[in-house]
Amino acid sequence: MYSKTRGIVLRTVKFGDTKLIVDFLTREEGRMSAVWKISTSKTAKVRRQYFQPMTVLDINCERSPRQSMAVIKEARLAQPYTSLYVDGAKMAITFFLAEFLNYSTRDLHSDAPLYDFIEQSMNWLDNSEKGIANFHLMFMMRLSLFLGFLPDMDSYRDGALFDMREGTFCTSAPLHQDVLNAQDARKMQVLMRMSPSNLHLFPLSRVERNRIIDLVLLYYRLHIPQFGEMKTLEVLREL
Description:
Shape: globular
Number of helices: 6
Order of helices and strands: EEEEEHHHEEEHHH
């Protein structure tokens, strides 16, 4: 049986000498893994560079009851990028977000609004020339809306703490240790104010940006079991 879908490449793993296992986030099915048989032919319709992180592909897969994974028969670029893989900063962000999404959407089923948010966000990054240094911060926090644990902005007050378990700001410490002090809680509040149209208005230092990354990843690890260690984080810290 053949099926067609649109998917964003999150990860590839070499399987033997002639195959790749490709992990996708698809619009129709959520997370999906498929096998691609590597071809070195110059006339091959599917090329290895199609499977770079965050590439958007229209894929045609063959499914068989005898196989544990679908086999990619056809693939074409659905949304060609112009700058993500040539601009050093954008490429670091792109690879980081692919790994981040690989962990944060691991058990995701079909979710068209979430998928559309990701595809539209990456198009914005590809076409933008300013304000990109904070893009991944905004992206990570906005994604939490679709995953069900967006912080409650209405509860913020000056000097408030941030209860990471509940996703709310509070004036007194909760009865657990998963709470941010007022200084870090203020960083979360600033992050919640970011949008594509105003990213350039938040001139964060590298130290501030890295602190916010750590806070957001800590928040995600509390809400998503077995969220892995980010191998791409150290490259991103240099931006």
